[in-house]
Amino acid sequence: MGAGHREGAKVTAEAVERTQVGPLLAQWRRRRGVSQLELSHLAGVSARHVGFVETGRSQPSREMVLRLAEHLDVPPRERNALLLAAGYAPVYHEKPLDDPAMRPVLDAVRRVLRGHHPYPAVVMDGRRDVIASNEPFDRLFTEGVAAHLLRPPVNVLRLALHPDGMAPRIVNLGRWRGKLLTGLARRSALDGNLRPLYEELLGYPCEQPVPEADIPGPDEIMLPLELRCGERVLSFLATFTTFGTARDLTSSELIIESFFPADDDTAAYLSGS
């Protein structure tokens, strides 16, 4: 599948100049469900100091902002926003994928995709737009998909849920749709730029019931993707991989979604046996 990359929203000083760092840190702490006391233990400071930072009574150092952000698992792009709100320069920079410095990242991506054969795999950016994919993904997941959904940037969520996409072939569409939309709703709460995509996908028709909560059956370990391919129904388990040591915004937001056979029949079909 052709590569397509859309840059994420840029964090600017204008966007945060009216916001102090304390309330932003407090928002992240609440999102993570961490108390001030718990955060203070993680960061090695007093709960009093955390409280003073959040209320603006204490101005945190650059290192303290980054330390608190690390323990709150704040994404790198949002760490830049915290630094700007505290009056410091961003530390994470962003290079386009065609920059020569990004060659090791692209080499690693291609190596992962080749190594996952004969199973499907796709590399996406933070919006879930396709950066690259392997031949099994292109062959199995784009069968019968309308041409307008395959024009770059191809969005994996739109590809899966659009009625002209994979949706008619997904046997358990209701539950799979619920899973994808729940994840996107959670991310859009942190990144408002994803909200239009969420609302678009929410408007797609679905004849199957979509559960309000994903409640597994008594013997269900994982939710598989059940995909009709010709006369067969293939069953896949999906895993996500990120570059945990990435120092660049573009590479830190790359996601590799790898699909594995969930049963012996699917494994045999994919291996050609």
TrEMBL record:
Pfam families with a match to the protein in the record: HTH_31 (PF13560), MLTR_LBD (PF17765)
Q: Which Gene3D superfamilies match?
A: 3.30.450.180, lambda repressor-like DNA-binding domains
**Which InterPro entries does its entry note?**
Cro/C1-type_HTH, Lambda_DNA-bd_dom_sf, MLTR_LBD
Q: Which domain of life is it from?
A: Bacteria
- Give every HTH cro/C1-type domain span: 25-79
Q: What is this protein called?
A: Helix-turn-helix transcriptional regulator
Q: Which organism is it from?
A: Kitasatospora saccharophila
What lineage is this protein's organism placed in? Bacteria, Bacillati, Actinomycetota, Actinomycetes, Kitasatosporales
